[in-house]
From TrEMBL:
Binding positions for substrate per the UniProt entry: 112
Ranges of residues in domain NADP-dependent oxidoreductase: 18-301
Lineage, top ranks: Eukaryota, Fungi, Dikarya, Ascomycota, Pezizomycotina
Pfam families in UniProt: Aldo_ket_red
Protein name as annotated: D-xylose reductase [NAD(P)H]
Keyword annotations: Carbohydrate metabolism, NAD, Oxidoreductase, Xylose metabolism
Active site per the UniProt annotation: 50
Pathway: Carbohydrate metabolism; D-xylose degradation
Amino acid sequence: MTTPTVKLSSGYDMPLVGFGLWKVNNDTCASQVYEAIKAGYRLFDGACDYGNEVECGQGVARAIKEGIVKREELFIVSKLWNSFHDGEQVEPICRKQLADWGVDYFDLYIVHFPISLKYVDPSVRYPPSWQNAEGKIELGKASIQETWTAMESVVDKKLARSIGVSNFNTQLLMDLLRYARIRPATLQIEHHPYLTQTRLVDYAQKEGLALTAYSSFGPLSFLELNLKDAHGTPPLFEHDVVKGIAEKHARTPAQVLLRWATQRNIAVIPKSNSPTRLAQNLQVNDFNLESAEIEAISALDKGLRFNDPVAYGLGIPIF
């Protein structure tokens, strides 16, 4: 099965459907990545703070060793954590992450959040978190420009083919684009029918950034974290609008939610432990929603954000 791709400003093609690695348990991660590759997934979206990059690399290595896939057929994504924003720390941590994955380059390396935290040596605490070794949050002094300049050097040294950002708002993108020597190829954001972020999406696409949506199923990824309730909104899988459209197309609600994004050229990175759902999530580009259906789903927008540092009890109101 061939997954449609989107052309990045860097010249590379990025699959529109990938496998998200957030909250994939260490004890099953290698096998899940391996099985996902067997199922046809080629994009894998990771990050050092997920704490499973070594296991991800093991799954990739097994698939390559068995001849299921070649490295150049994969699109491996990782992210720069907040505590490594200082210019001199970007390349070393990128090299560590590459070593953990067991690969020579990332297809895409992303600034995870637009916030600098004080550096914590990986030998002291790794995987990293919002808190330092003493359990406190200490803001760093690195500007986005300092961090981005170091990200550009990662491309120059062929450690990453493309670089991008995540959780940036429109104003931050405007600022970044003023001085970027290498433009960000992608923007990754929380994006689902309860949080459509239309103005941000339109601006980024107008500027040539490819969009990747995380948390495509809304609050589903956050239920066990008890961050906040859904303000009376039903789970998207159970919403009458989504269910009705799914029944009309003989698809699952999950497939409809993913197609709502990919039909607008927004990449998605769902994950699943179920082989059936794993296959279904990849089969979302062989049918089309009507424009009225896309509008009906978009009309569910409530500005309801789940991945917010404030919701984690952190005093960092970046949104």
